[in-house]
Amino acid sequence: MKLCSLLLLAAFAVFAQAPTIIIGPHYASAVPTVAQGKPSRATIAGTPVLGFVAGPNALDLRAIVGTASAARLGDAVSVPETAKHLYLSPRQRYALVEQDGSLAIWRLGGAEPRNTLTPIAITASHPDLVAFSPRGEAVALYSRSSGRLQIIVGLPMKPSVISEIPAAAVGDASGFALSDDAKAIIAVSPDSNALFVFNSSAWHSLPTGYMPSAWSFLPNTHDLVISDPTQNVVALLSNVDEPGPAVHIIAQGIGPNFVAAAKGGDIVILADSKSGTIWSVEPKTMVLRQLSSGMRIDSLALLRDGHTALLSVSPTLSLFQVPSAAGY
């Protein structure tokens, strides 16, 4: 839940099968302003799009094009003229577009997406926190000024607001997590020492004894993975919206500050930006593997295939491809 947006990799001494680090150019020159409205010419029709890179400015967007063995950044993508801010969804099939007084869905179908927007009827057009579900099928929007949390489902094809939840009971929350069916909702208190779950029209304390710095639901489940660097543990909370959810320690001795569930949820990717270390853990078997160390890690955003992660854009485009559980 704590809501985004990459050097040659030395041979791994521990594992025979190594993930792939993909090298691509980093464009240090100024990004063309989106106000020009000029379409990108850097990508060729039919070129595979692995995903997108947002930033560093609110309306900067570039496609990651090519293949998993030869990726590069395309030129700046022209965004809708009415856009004020972009929020890239997991798997990057679409983006939430903040406009004056409204939000809309912008479907990212290719390297140069069409500027066709699907409006969403909401009451707060400028969210302070945005929390997507693991597959991006739902999203939670939190407004500090109103103290309310809006839940949107049916993304990206048929977006609709199904509920608007008062969030005053959890204080000025620092983060939220949302399941794909939008039925399990978690709030993290500002000092990260408490979790709350919304159930039966009210917020309830979720006493786990952990102080999470990173979290993610597993796709299509109500199972939440949290990382607590203070205790150096990664825990799995099963069916968090039910009374007394079971707590399983799936990794010990590590305190990653990034957590992401790969496609299907059979693998959870853990990353520590301080040491530059990446691990994978299988929630079912609790098998923990260190995949790499000493890397530049600024983010852990899964791209379209659900197994390739964006780690950094500067000084090079750095991607990391995680093997499936059966790939070991």
Could you characterize what this model shows?
There is one protein chain. This protein has 328 residues and is an all-beta fold. Among the domains are: 21-120, no CATH class; 208-318, TolB, C-terminal domain (Neuraminidase), CATH 2.120.10.30. It is built from no helices and 27 strands. Strands 1-27-26-25 form a 4-stranded antiparallel sheet, with no helix packed on it. A hairpin with a 4-residue loop joins strand 22 (268-272) and strand 23. The two termini are 28 Å apart.
Assess the beta-strand content as a share of residues: 35-45%
Note the gap between the termini. Answer: 28 Å
Give the second-level CATH assignment, the architecture of the domain at 208-318.
Answer: 6 Propeller
- The strand line-up of the biggest sheet is 1-27-26-25
What is the CATH topology assignment of the domain at 208-318? Neuraminidase
Q: What best-fitting shape do the alpha-carbon axes yield?
A: globular
Note poorly predicted spans: 1-44
The CATH class assignment of the domain at 208-318 is Mainly Beta
Overall pLDDT metric: 82
Biggest sheet: strands, sense, closure?
A: 4 strands, antiparallel
Could you give the count of β-strands? 27
Structural class: mainly beta
The CATH homology group name of the domain at 208-318: TolB, C-terminal domain
Write the element-wise H/E pattern from the N-terminal end onward. EEEEEEEEEEEEEEEEEEEEEEEEEEE
Binned, the helix content reads under 10%
Using the CA coordinates, give the radius of gyration: 19 Å
Number of helices: 0
